[in-house]
Amino acid sequence: MSASDAGEPSLGSSISATAALFADATRAAVCDALMDGCAWTPGELRQAAGVSAPAMSACLDRLETAGAVRSVRQGRHRYVMLAGDHVASVVEFLGNVSGEPPAKPIGYRQVQADQRLRTARTCYSHIAGGLGVAIAETMVKRSLLIAADESFSLSGEGESWFRSNGILQGRTLRAPHVRACLDWTQRRMHLAGSYGTALCSYLISTGALRRTQPRRALAVTEAGKEWLRNQLRLDIGTAAVIRH
């Protein structure tokens, strides 16, 4: 007896349901906004998506029922975030398969914002954009990561590197420890997984990276440039961190 005969959902129907969930423009806009890894209020998401309060309420109910987002209450306020890295992976994947949006006339500020996101940004909880790809590829060249079949695994030397730099200190690590994530602007892999999350958090907490505008964008500080040179032998002043 097949899964459909037994009344169980087939893989095809599951894919169809997932596709339908993200096919709605408002739900897609909400998930894209939440890719910065932060918690948003429904009001902030409503403004970002440009919809009414009732429309946003229905949107969030649908996403939460589907397990794509979760919400927490603090006092009188409700905060919404992605349900986890697995949802972020789906959103990033959809960004890849959908390709670049149609070109349209935009102003200088929009061009600069787009360039900053391409150069360095967060992909949910890890480093993406040209910087994220440059870090991952440098780690492969230094044998800290092993790249095979579009996936990453951690070498013994890589494990020692993470621990000796204090990146994993005080962290609860969940599987997968390392994972390759296809970057939607660079079309190459950046580092995801719990070690990728730990690296991003460490660099932000130590001031090597700072969050900037537009939302999700990251800026490398002078201390960060020095850290990358000393610990990874990566000079972002000469690295081609933007895909042209």
From TrEMBL:
CDD domains: HTH_ARSR. GO terms for biological process: response to cadmium ion; response to lead ion. Residues 20-96 form the HTH arsR-type domain. GO terms for molecular function: cadmium ion sensor activity; DNA binding; DNA-binding transcription factor activity; lead ion binding. InterPro entries: ArsR-like_HTH, HTH_ArsR_DNA-bd_dom, HTH_Metal-responsive_Reg, WH-like_DNA-bd_sf, WH_DNA-bd_sf. This is Transcription regulator ArsR. The lineage of its organism: Bacteria, Bacillati, Actinomycetota, Actinomycetes, Bifidobacteriales.
